[in-house]
Amino acid sequence: MQQSKKILEVKDVVTKFGKNLVHDGVNLHVNAGEIYGFLGPSGCGKSTLMREIIMLEQFHSGSIELLGQKIEKVRRRAAQNLRMQWGVLFQSNALYTSLTVAENIALSLQEYTKLSPSMIKDIVAFKIDIVGLKQFDGTLYPSEISGGMKKKAALARALVMDPKILFLDEPTSGLDPISAREFDALIVKLRDLLGISVVMVTHDLTSIHNTLDRMAVIDNKKIVAEGTLNEVTKIKSPFIERFFDEGLR
What we know:
By secondary structure, the chain is an alpha/beta fold. It is built from nine helices and ten strands. It has a six-stranded mixed β-sheet with strand order 6-7-8-3-9-10. A four-stranded antiparallel β-sheet has the order 2-1-4-5, with no helix packed on it. A hairpin with a 2-residue loop joins strand 4 (61-66) and strand 5 (69-70). The two termini are 28 Å apart.
């Protein structure tokens, strides 16, 4: 697994909402091919940082370089091309309830490519297969499938454009322990199979232990630790000590 090339770098990012300071000089980097996690207490700005990286929210100052481009400087057309190089799995899954699973997965291909319907159908079938769903599941509506299946369907949709980097916001939230561990294993499998990079927001101790190569811990508006699990748990920080004492020590 390649881990020398930086695929994402956040430098001195400051985030403000009115007078509320959320991030005060955040610095971190993600290497190509690794699974990287954002950790921290509730309300520390983990999901906000991810949304800034994928250009859904704006930061006050600093710089974010993603896939070789500084996102604060890209123009509209370049930004659209950049967005097509990543996939996102939101915590809510964000599936369209009026569309079948297969139709949800096909949307980006229909909107952004000139592929034939038969080729789109083949690609959708492949994505359904690699996330561990059955082809019959593609004919069902979101209301007709389980929470774990919805996660997999949303993951297939995030992967449909063959992204270089995958963003996951609390991917195991709402899943039972068995489904959560299956999803963890699936993420590692897809990283190895597809050679993608993965960035996730998570509170799940088992996911952190089993899935992440490296992580950044946000507390008191800054990164208080970055590195492997072993490196992070050696850092003297009240949040880190409380958090990891729950299950990893």
